[in-house]
Amino acid sequence: MRTVPKLARALAMIVPAGAMAAALIAQYGYGLAPCEMCWWQRYAHIAALVLAILAWVTRDVRAQTVLFWLAVLGIVISGLIGGFHAGVEYHWWQGLTTCSTTRLGGGDALDAIMSAPVIRCDVAAWSLFGISMAGYNCLGSLIAAAGIAGLARRGR
After folding, report:
1. b/e code 88-110 from CB counts within 10 Å (16+ = b)
2. Residue 100, phi then psi, degrees to nearest 5
3. Number of Cβ within a 10 Å radius of residue 115
4. Is the pLDDT of residue 30 over 80?
5. In angstroms, rounded to a whole number, what is the distance separating the alpha carbons of residues 18 and 114?
6. 86-to-10, 26, 40, 77, 137 alpha-carbon distances in Å
7. What is the pTM (predicted TM-score) of this model?
8. Nearest-angstrom CA–CA distance, 80 and 139
């Protein structure tokens, strides 16, 4: 069994790291609080990043290959969640039936719940050319995952 090419392994780290950087800049730099489905996309990217890092540092070729493909799968999952989320934002289908908040804890729980901002999953916090952040995550993640997979397959 041959190792996964370094470029493919590097991209499997760079893509989720870049997506997380963009999400954190949007949140902390521009005040765009994430909804529940935004968090789901982040969790998949975080898992992909951790798996890609493990694939990079492991010496065992079989483990490296499995970890790499799991990282690619994490990128795909984030993209698919982003696609579902974008569909909810565009009102193509119904998403979550509950709303989420970004602030709980400390003091009276009821006061915290009542004063916390409600972040709706069916309203895009930002868009460019009619595409929301979830839509860009869908497009970027799925295209990147296909490219990374193609590099890995071609390198064999």
Report:
1. bbbeeeebeeeebbeeeeeeeee
2. -125, 160
3. 11
4. yes
5. 34
6. 28, 17, 13, 14, 9
7. 0.80
8. 9
Q: 118 has which bridge partners?
A: 101
Cα separation, 18 vs 26, in Å, equals: 12
Helical residues (DSSP H) of the chain, grouped into ranges = 6-24, 30, 36-57, 61-89, 109-115, 133-154
20: CB partners within 8 A, 6+ apart: 42, 45, 46, 49
Q: Are 53 and 100 in contact (CB under 8 A)?
A: no
Structure tokens at 91: 């009102």
* Angle, alpha carbons 106-41-57 (nearest 5°): 100
Q: pLDDT, tens digit, for every residue of 85-137?
A: 899 888 888 877 555 555 545 567 666 656 666 677 777 776 779 878 888 99
